[in-house]
Amino acid sequence: MIIKRRYGFSILFREILPPLIILTGWDCVVVILFQIFHQEWMEQPALPFSLMGSALAIFLGIRNNAAYARWWEGRTLWGSVTNNCRSFGREVDSLLGGAPELARAMAAYPYILKSSLSNNEPDAVIRTLLDEDTYSFVFSCGNPANALLYKLGQSVRHLVIERNIDGAVHGTVDRILSDLANAQGGLERIRNTPLPIQYSMLPNIVTHLFCILLPLSAVQTLGWITPLGSSIIGVLFQMLDRSGRNLQEPFRDSPHALPMLTISRTIERDLLQPLGETPHPMPTPRFGRVP
Amino acid sequence: MIIKRRYGFSILFREILPPLIILTGWDCVVVILFQIFHQEWMEQPALPFSLMGSALAIFLGIRNNAAYARWWEGRTLWGSVTNNCRSFGREVDSLLGGAPELARAMAAYPYILKSSLSNNEPDAVIRTLLDEDTYSFVFSCGNPANALLYKLGQSVRHLVIERNIDGAVHGTVDRILSDLANAQGGLERIRNTPLPIQYSMLPNIVTHLFCILLPLSAVQTLGWITPLGSSIIGVLFQMLDRSGRNLQEPFRDSPHALPMLTISRTIERDLLQPLGETPHPMPTPRFGRVP
Amino acid sequence: MIIKRRYGFSILFREILPPLIILTGWDCVVVILFQIFHQEWMEQPALPFSLMGSALAIFLGIRNNAAYARWWEGRTLWGSVTNNCRSFGREVDSLLGGAPELARAMAAYPYILKSSLSNNEPDAVIRTLLDEDTYSFVFSCGNPANALLYKLGQSVRHLVIERNIDGAVHGTVDRILSDLANAQGGLERIRNTPLPIQYSMLPNIVTHLFCILLPLSAVQTLGWITPLGSSIIGVLFQMLDRSGRNLQEPFRDSPHALPMLTISRTIERDLLQPLGETPHPMPTPRFGRVP
Amino acid sequence: MIIKRRYGFSILFREILPPLIILTGWDCVVVILFQIFHQEWMEQPALPFSLMGSALAIFLGIRNNAAYARWWEGRTLWGSVTNNCRSFGREVDSLLGGAPELARAMAAYPYILKSSLSNNEPDAVIRTLLDEDTYSFVFSCGNPANALLYKLGQSVRHLVIERNIDGAVHGTVDRILSDLANAQGGLERIRNTPLPIQYSMLPNIVTHLFCILLPLSAVQTLGWITPLGSSIIGVLFQMLDRSGRNLQEPFRDSPHALPMLTISRTIERDLLQPLGETPHPMPTPRFGRVP
Amino acid sequence: MIIKRRYGFSILFREILPPLIILTGWDCVVVILFQIFHQEWMEQPALPFSLMGSALAIFLGIRNNAAYARWWEGRTLWGSVTNNCRSFGREVDSLLGGAPELARAMAAYPYILKSSLSNNEPDAVIRTLLDEDTYSFVFSCGNPANALLYKLGQSVRHLVIERNIDGAVHGTVDRILSDLANAQGGLERIRNTPLPIQYSMLPNIVTHLFCILLPLSAVQTLGWITPLGSSIIGVLFQMLDRSGRNLQEPFRDSPHALPMLTISRTIERDLLQPLGETPHPMPTPRFGRVP
User: Hey, are the CB atoms on D142 and E269 less than 8 Å from each other?
Assistant: First the structure.
């Protein structure tokens, strides 16, 4: 995720560059053909063009709203993971009477979730937080994050029996694990369910079509400055389309992805610091990007 | 549900083909009639046409937003079924002290729900997960999924009495069943309550009317290239209308339906793997479609 | 609620007919006056008309969105009634150890709620589900549905004392009654709080004004075919206005009302079937309408 | 809150009258100046005017949506107060074994909340529902409604100790008080946080500017009938602006305010009737307004 | 946050002044160049300009809606902090039997949260509310607000053991701490996750571009009064852009920031008054601004 305006501008500009060059090239071709070999059939009237603009506006409006909502829901669910991991750490101490190995195992949870959401290899840090048994059990299952919650549930049970803890307290701690399961399920839902194909493909196709037809419609009135006017408009619509596409997959590796590593480190810090342990240092932003 | 862009394009194209052919045919008829037997009454001014476009935009905007919201709510509720089934599996182990037959019965729940939502025969897999008694009781009721939750409630009760488990723990486990009842009720609500007839029929009718009148309005200025311009616009609005209609019934068998079989298999896997049992394999996507 | 497209079309058409006839009549008057006694002052320019269209679009957009949200919230709250009645039935059996008379009394709850929401006489079916005492207590109160919840709370208390049930279990069952009170309160809120008068009256008035002025603006360019063009546009806007008005009162007796009888019957069935009792049969849809 | 259409119309008309008169006056001045002392600089082209209309539409759209959302959230939170007060009444009886003085004290809660939200003197009815001690403690605090919840919490504690009630039951009853605190906090949030000044002031200013410039733009084409056309449009936009402003402060004394007295009476009735006591009668609507 | 209209107007006007001066200057340059050295290439047609306006409207619409939603979500989460702090105060008394030092420590929580959200030095008031040990532990951690919740959890545990309090009651009190952790996590999420760079930068850039091109498009028809018309429109769009930017960072020090000091004082008052202690006085609004 980009957090610095300065870098953000240059990243956006680099994204815009290729379509800008292609668009300007096409605009020049049109304007030269029109001005030199004046072709009457190129004189396009404005009506169908503005209707096309309306259809495009509805498509882009719905798609970009939905894409932003997915991105923000993804961020909110990661926030819920953060909150519940912290509450688990607090409750292990205040309700169960303290169990550092449980808090440490929970610190591994966001790392496991992160790697399964982004289809990456599990982070090396996980091995330092889980004991050998838990590690091999968790990664033998199809869904390691869910398996860790299962394992944590069993460990809580052992503690409850060992220390003769009240059932209501046990239920309260287990509620946190259920809330984590809900947040995790929500994140997997966003990853597994792409935006309907109509909303992810059609705005893209219609935007390209629109940019191709744009100079044909503008060349009559704009004449030789068509490439300037037409490419400004074209780039604007390309950027609208692109901002929707960037947000619709919030876990894919891109400059606009959610900062899952930073969130995981925050959770680790908030779980380990009260135990007096030293967590891994926060990642440093590079070129305005938080990983 | 379509998850591959490549197949998605060909599926969308095949859906678009019939209206495209009809529209182009009609456009050609209009342009020929106009250019050859020039009929003055065919010269339609732009005003009523752009007003019609506004009305259509409001209709399509509200309808498509509502249809997308239904589809995404359906997906979210299936996500809630997933989360609560997993949590039930964890709690059976950590709160009730383990009961494989309960986890196995819960694995049948999504299959039963799936078949009642899509009005299909119950999946063969259900018989392998439920014992004979439960199977016949469940399918003797008008709402088998609800009957299974009822039965699971009774089994939990027997366990609680047998193993002398605390009331608060019992309440915590029962909360998961209530959450499942809530998700199930939400899914049935979406299936039983179609979008109001005004929003499901009128956009469709108005879009057709719009496409019929389109060439009449465009032929004056576009002349012989009317069929090209008019059919591009017409197909765009047809696709807008169709993307709304596709999403408004998320459980009906279509390329855009929710992947209920895949979700059921995921739940089965996450419930059976921690018990050391082998779940059914995940379905393979065919032509970019996840069933 | 209309669930069949075929009937839906004819119901919509019958609703549209009166305004269509009046509009066409007025359009004919305008066109005849204009073409025969050509009155110059009737030539209205397009600008104020398109501004009026913008204002109307904002009004209709906000109102129709709000009306649809009310309708869907009403449906969702009835869904919540369904879910919690079912969960109450399950918990009476699994947490309290079974009490058929409580499940039967709960089956009367949706019928009581339905009649108070639609200001009808209490359904005859209620008397068959409640015992004499409860019936007379409930209907002596100003809010019978709330009184039934109160009574059910007392019956649960007696059961808890009699069978020496744990306090946490008692709390879990009582939570369901609180959730029902929340859903009921939400339904009463929608019934008692109409859409603000500005949003329910102004779109209606502005739509009529718009339809009256429409032929004046169109007659110059459309000439003799004004009645056709103008009445198509007019009917579209009338239908937009009407679809909002139809949804804004989801409990009033109309073809678009929520199917409260069907929902009540479903709840009764899901509560009585597991007890081995026979519920009342589901109502049959007539002319595509579910009551 | 206005609930009768008939009165609603006359209230709206009276609100519209002053701007209508001023607008028409200004329109007449413009048309006379233009037609008699034809000033060329008054001929305003349409482009900047339609751009201004777009900016105004965005402002009014966002503001009116936000204002309606505030109003409906306020109503929903009052609904939540209603539900939780009722549930408290039920639980005092079914979970704590009955305590009429607690139900009576709770019946005072909505009256206290109402007067603090609308900055009025506390209602006389409060003194009849609270005992002397509670009354003086509650009104000695900066936030009387919060103080009453605090006091009720203490009374519940005494009951729990006296009657030796289970901790889980105590927790369930206390949950209702927390839910009331949440609803109360939400209502105070709406009262204390006005809509951002940009959204509450700018639409108002821009609407006035728009109405002043409107006849200048219309007079060229509309001529002598400018006052008619221009004031219809102007009043429409004034009403759009006003409907947003009316809803944005849902607790201020106005015909559009939430019916807080009626809601308080309903709560009182539903709490006192099951105890066999007679609540205060419901207020009668006057001129279609529910207080 | 500005709560007085009068001051609000002058603050808004001062914000608008710089762009207004620059815009008017540029408009004058354009009109002079055009009228005196009539340059034909400056005659810009309206089409590309109105397309640019559509793109800008979509950008501003989505961005301003998202910014307002962030601001209101921030306010709602602070509301949730208020409610849960109050409920904690009540429960310390009614569920745990009273512990003034816990209520006092909780009164420090909003101050700690406020300073970490706005990156300020911790408020001096915190030292007066926390004992020395808690103070040094809390500020030795990376996230002091979270550390305070952890510490409070431990203190509750000691009380529970000391006074032999039921596990269910302990769970109920701990639930409040979890709800506070959820609200705190939500606030940190809003602070740490800026609006996607596309939505925070592009509307700004496009608005500037739009304002630069505006007089070129208007000068043909407006002539010498271009600066008036063009700068009114320009300022409107600048204000739309600015109102979005103002709201998107609700914790940054600005006239539009959330009144976090006032909220913290309110919480302190509602926690300390029932204990008979005197809280710090509420801050006085200066120039219509609540800090």
Answer: yes
